[in-house]
Amino acid sequence: MPWEDDSDTDGNGPEIIVEDAGWRAVVPHVERLVRRASNASLIWMERRFSGVALVLPETIVLSSDRIVKTLNARHRGRNKPTNVLTFEPPPGYPGGEIILALGVVCREARAARKPVSHHLAHLIAHGVLHLSGHDHHEAGDARRMEMEEVRVLAMMGLPNPWKSRT
Questions:
Q1: pTM of the prediction?
Q2: Is 136 a known ligand-binding residue?
């Protein structure tokens, strides 16, 4: 049986901000899914990397392509929206931030013939891994990060996002 956390909010975990109401139209109970994906990611990270200091997301923002494009240009020098941005906290402050672009996430899910909810859960796991120091600049690092994402999603009963659907 897959791991599941059905609590809408328990006072723990990141603040979830739905900045673009369109998220609620494409993903039913989107806050619940984001919380489940975030919690599963954190539980997996604690199990897998016990003793390692983890940076937890303080905030997860479900935003628009326009806002993410602006942030991506300002902070990464890329004048286009991307699916997910992660921001580590300033030194001495807890928690980081994960920001997702609705249009990009929907287009990617549609192109991969996957439910938007599955792609969103995958990107939350991806963002949590980034905050905890994982990266994908080198091939070996990318493969390790992909496998961690697969394991988090498996805890939620979701399929491997790296296997194409036929």
A1: 0.87
A2: yes
